[in-house]
Structure formats: structure tokens, C-alpha cells
Design a protein that fits this description.
The protein is an alpha/beta fold.
Amino acid sequence: MPELRHLRAFVAVAQDLSFTRAAERLHLGQQAVSKTVAQLERELGVALLERTTHDVRLTPAGEALLRAGRDAVAAADAAFALAQEIGSGLSGRVRAGVTPAVGPGDREELARVLREGAPDLSVAIREVRPGEIGSLLRGRELDLVLARSAPLDDALDSAPLRPTPVVLCVPAGHRLAAAASVRLEELDGERLLTWSPAGTPYTDLLVDRLAAGGARVEPVEAHVTGDPALSELAALGAVALVPAGWPPSAAVAQIAVQDDVTLPLFVLWRIGRASAAVRRTRERMSGQRSLSSAAIAGSG
């Protein structure tokens, strides 16, 4: 059965009518090229080339194969190149999910690290509830997800990324709104806006971390997620610990937190070999951040 290597060798010889130049182009020995073309002729049962001591000529069958074969080799090379680009995350489309607790800064960084050096790659970011992650990844509707807690699903794999600094957000007019910075203990007795109900891993992590800092809080689940999420602070009489880099708002004050508090961040994917997008995310979002939460809050 003829193979692509047979056709590639024939096309190289037929284009230049020279075994020597074809061997140089293919980075093979001249005898190897001659042997490969002879194998192709035997497989097809026809002569493709007329060889003399002085030159090489195409037979009618060779001319026909060159016309069709040149395009076939080019199409195969293009297909291989496309597969390499997509497999290495340099082109195609990556569908990424983010949970509501993943702020704009981490979302923007995810898009940036995926597209860095890959101008032909398209990235679609979709906000998902934690309870949707498993089905969306298993159903291949998403390629990866950024979340604040590791999955409890045996069909999913995960890896920790660098944690995200936090800032405290309070509604304008709150007793702490004018403070330059606060300690966790100053939040004792507050209502805490959360993206998931009490009893879920991330909400419980926040409540426990505040309790360890001397603040007993009442978690209140947000009814709105996404960019306008903090619009509920005043109506609910609540405060929020959010990822540093949250967009500023005249109705919400952002305050630096003096305690060493960060939010965990994980990348999740279907169990098995991690895709190029997952590998790139892990490689480029696992280092140290250059800005502290206090510096970011102060700049806002």
C-alpha cells in the first residue's frame, strides 16, 4: 500500500527532475530517495519516471500523479501543522469556565496567558456555578475551569495556582468605609456576602478564616453574580472579601486587609492528560504575584 512518504519523495523528485536535489530537500540520502520512488512504482504497478544516465523525465502516469500528488502533500502538511498548532494551544478555541468568586483580575490574566504567543487562539470565558462544573467538563462543554476550591468529583483533576490577594469591600456609608486598612477582627458581627450558600467548601473556608482572625460573621448568599455582584452590599447590609483588582465603584469602598489573607485558586479539567491550555495555565499562573492586596486597594 503506498504511503505518504512514497508520495512525498516522488513529488520532490518530479518537481526538480533530480534525485540529488530531492534528497537535499528531504534531508535524505540519494539512494534512500531512489529506493522509495522505486517502491512506489512497484506498489502502483506503473513507471512514473524515465531514468537515463543524464536526466530524469516524467512518464504520462508520473505527470498525472504529480498534478494530484503535489496538492495532496501540501494538504497533508497543512493538516499536520494545524494539528500541531491546536494541540500545542496556539490556535483553535479554548472554552474556559470561571466561578463567581474568581474576580476580573484572574479572568483577564487567564485570557492573557492562554493567548500569549498564540495570536490565532480564541478564548471564550463563561461564568459557571460550582455545581455545574462537573457536568460541563465531563460533557466537554468546557476545556478548563478556574475555581476557588478543588473538586470532589472523581472524574475531574485539579492543580493549585498561586492564591489571589483580597480586599474588603463595604458599601459607602459603612462604619469602615473611610478606613485605609482593617484587621479581620474588626469585621466581627458583620454579614458577609458570599457567592455560594453556607455549607459549600469556599464559603466555609471564608467563614473559618475570618473566625480564625477573630471575626464571627453571618454568610449571606449573593443573588447577583458577575460584574454587578457588589451592588447588593448596601441592600443586604453586608461586606465582602473579594479578589484584589475588582473594578472600583462610587457606591463601594475598597479597603486593604492587614492580615495575611489570600484566596485559593485552582484550575480544574477532565481526568486524564492535561490539554495544552491546562498546561499553559498551570505553568504561567503558579508564580508569585507582583502586587499585594494593600497596594492594589490603595491604587483604586
